[in-house]
Specification:
Largest sheet: 6 strands, antiparallel
Shape: globular
Helix content: 25-40%
Number of strands: 6
Structural class: alpha+beta
Radius of gyration: 18 Å
Number of domains: 1
Number of helices: 6
Strand content: 15-25%
Oligomer: single chain
Length: 188
């Protein structure tokens, strides 16, 4: 069921959160995109900073992230669903393998995002949640057009890229391989 909320970003559906998202929090999900290798969705999340228990000069923070169940893989999906309270027993075949086709894409995207298997594409903070949501929508539109550029750069100080985050591969070996690759690129 898609519930319309005042101020809901165009082309995004409300995914989860409080009906009064301006005072608490909310998440929206984009249409399905494809980068040539796998499908992905863009998730916009907005939080009231005070509700997070944080002191700040701003009242709200917004995040734009990408999530790909295909890139994350079945093992990460199963861990995310289990962590988010989804009863996987209801979705087992006779060999006790999880049947992911029985679970909606939106539920899988939400579980992966909550579990942390997503790539942060952009964030900002401010005092007007409607302005932040509009800016997030504009950034999401840009990210869907320039997806590879948003994903290529390092997302943490270890050297993990957006590609690593969206796959759920945050091993030190992956980070070191990325750093070595960047060093070789800089030498050329």
């Amino acid at each position: 069921m898609n519930i319309e909320f005042y101020g809901q970003p165009d082309e995004f559906e409300f995914l989860v959160g409080d009906i009064n998202w301006r005072d608490f929090w909310g998440k929206w999900i984009s249409q399905k995109y494809n980068n040539g290798d796998w499908d992905y969705w863009i998730v916009i999340e907005i939080n009231n900073v005070e509700e997070l228990g944080r002191e700040s000069d701003c009242t709200h923070i917004v995040f734009v992230s990408s999530v790909s169940p295909e890139a994350a893989g079945k093992k990460n999906i199963e861990m995310a669903l289990g962590c988010c309270g989804i009863d996987l027993e209801k979705h087992l075949d006779e060999d006790r393998n999880v049947i992911l086709d029985q679970i909606s894409d939106e539920m899988i995207v939400e579980a992966l995002h909550t579990y942390g298997i997503s790539a942060l594409l952009w964030s900002d903070e401010g005092n007007d949640p409607d302005e932040l949501l509009q800016a997030a929508k504009e950034q999401a539109t840009a990210a869907s057009s320039l997806f590879g550029f948003y994903m290529d750069g390092p997302k943490n100080r270890l050297g993990h890229t957006g590609w690593d985050f969206i796959r759920g591969d945050l091993s030190i070996d992956t980070a070191m391989a990325n750093r070595k690759g960047w060093a070789m690129w800089a030498i050329q």
